[in-house]
Amino acid sequence: MSKMDALRAMREARYAEMTARASAPAASRQTAARPPVAPPAAKKTATPKKAAPVESTETTEALCGHRNMSGRTCTREQGHAAKSHRYS
């Protein structure tokens, strides 16, 4: 068998597999593709208390938040007078 014959045989086998998969019912394809899902756990009756938010003294001022094309954000204060942004 030559290289071209082997490639042709592989292509025909893939084509036959795809047509068989396409002709299968949609319900059996979904159940075979998805793993089984565990039943949801029972909800707890007691809810834990949320901790009070802790504010840091260093970051109490709001940042500019301007984003550049690569997704970095400006670290200068909100409403800064400088024309350029500092990205991090």
Biggest β-sheet description = none
Distance between the termini: 59 Å
Chain-averaged pLDDT: 77
Oligomer: single chain
Structural class: mainly alpha
Identify the overall geometry.
flat
Region (Disordered): 20-88
Biased composition (Low complexity): 20-53
Please give a structural write-up.
The structure is a single chain. The protein contains two helices and no strands. The chain is mainly alpha-helical and 88 residues long. The protein has a domain at 3-33. The longest helix has 21 residues, at 3-23. The N and C termini lie far apart (59 Å). Residues 20-88 are annotated as: Disordered. Residues 20-53 have a biased composition (Low complexity).
In short:
The protein is mainly α and 88 residues long. It has a domain at 3-33. The protein contains 2 helices and no strands.
List descriptors.
single chain, 88 residues, 2 helices, 33% helix
Topology overview:
Blueprint: H1 3-23, H2 26-33
